[in-house]
Specification:
Elements lengths: L1 E5 L4 H12 L3 E6 L8 H9 L4 E4 L5 H10 L3 E6 L6 H6 L1 H20 L4 E8 L23 H19 L3 E8 L1 E3 L18 H10 L5 E4 L11 E2 L1 E3 H16 L7 E6 L5 E2 H12 L5 E4 L8 E2 L4 H7 L7 H15 L2
Parallel strand pairs: 1-2, 1-4, 2-3, 4-5, 5-6, 6-11, 7-10, 8-13, 9-14
Antiparallel strand pairs: 9-12
Helix pairs in contact: 1-2, 1-8, 3-5, 5-6, 7-9, 7-11, 9-11
Length: 338
């Protein structure tokens, strides 16, 4: 069964490709290499014994999208990661985010609607909830006004898919709202490769630990939490990747109860920034240089998942602990800086 993974050379996408190939799926990667490297193909091949097909395509080019699906008419599913993903950058470059994250989604769905049967997994985000009224966050929590253009593209993206599914009975989709992916594959052949200054906490932590960054900034210590710092749900990227395979199998095996479904993907446990720093120091034996700075615009106080639906309906559950995920991220950092 041929599955397309857009953004398949990126952090999450590459780990999903590995899990798909381990399950016997034939994978075709689409990536424009704007935030990834073709070298990731070698890492995937080292783990699975097979290098996936790769096509360098910019999905903003509608003609190229049409041409791809003409040539790959036997595609049975698409897992869509290709998108810009930095909250801060989206505030500075909103039009780039709307073009890159929404136009590309529309072009893909237009092609899938023309097929007899198609399955679509969307890389969504817990950002759609904003600051939730209740914790842990369930799938029925209200969607709050987005704090950033990035968050808004995830909300609008879900609406586009939902509306498409209403009029296209041949299209089956699942949106996975994931929390904070971290870590690397246990083989240390693939991991997170942020270009430039990392936008997320853990790669900044590991880069500070290895000496690439002089100091880690902790944005605010006056939040109404146990230690004053923000709380997030950090999930090992391999656990997250396996959730995509579970969701795809649900569609392929026609076990879905409607042609548009939503699942939270997290651990169900919240960890504060200072707890993450402490856990990293413990597993890496590194003392981190960090300082408390002003709050960052757009940050919610706390977000962690209620994973009951994913656990019971998808039959999926996160397996790795925070320390295990942080240790894998540290081993990856050590490897790529040698």
């Amino acid at each position: 069964m041929k599955i397309v993974v857009t953004g398949g050379l990126g952090f999450i996408g590459s780990h999903v490709v590995v899990e798909l190939q381990n399950e016997g799926f034939e994978v075709v990667i689409i990536d424009n290499l704007s935030n990834s490297s073709e070298n990731v193909l070698k890492g995937i091949a080292a783990i699975t014994g097979k290098e996936p097909v790769f096509e360098r395509i910019d999905l903003r080019d509608k003609a190229d999208v049409i041409d791809f699906f003409k040539r790959h008419h036997d595609v049975e599913g698409v897992i869509h990661f290709a998108a810009s993903k930095a909250v801060g950058e989206s505030v500075d470059k909103p039009l780039m985010y709307y073009e890159n994250n929404l136009n590309t989604l529309v072009y893909i769905l237009q092609q899938l609607q023309q097929k007899e049967n198609s399955n679509f997994i969307f890389s969504s985000s817990c950002t759609v909830y904003g600051q939730a009224d209740e914790l842990p966050i369930t799938e029925s929590a209200p969607i709050k006004p987005a704090e950033s253009p990035y968050g808004n593209t995830k909300q609008i993206g879900e609406e586009i898919i939902k509306d498409s599914c209403k009029v296209a009975s041949n299209l089956n989709a699942i949106a996975l709202r994931y929390f904070n992916p971290i870590g690397a594959h246990e083989s240390v052949n693939i991991g997170e490769l942020p270009i430039g200054v990392p936008q997320n906490l853990v790669p900044f932590i590991t880069q500070t630990g290895i000496g690439l960054r002089e100091q880690l900034s902790v944005f605010g210590n006056d939040y109404p939490t146990k230690d004053g710092t923000c709380i997030r749900d950090y999930i090992h990227v391999v656990d997250l990747a396996k959730a995509h395979v579970s969701a795809l199998k649900r569609l392929v095996e026609e076990k879905n109860t409607s042609n548009y479904e939503v699942f939270n993907i997290g651990t169900g446990k919240g960890s504060s920034v200072l707890e993450v720093i402490s856990a990293f120091e413990e597993v890496s034996n590194q003392q981190l240089n960090y300082k408390i700075v002003d709050r960052r615009e757009g940050d919610v106080i706390a977000a962690f998942a209620d994973t009951t639906k994913a656990n019971t309906v998808l039959g999926w559950k996160a397996q790795s602990s925070l320390k295990e995920a942080l240790l894998s991220a540290w081993k990856w950092e050590e490897k790529i800086r040698r």
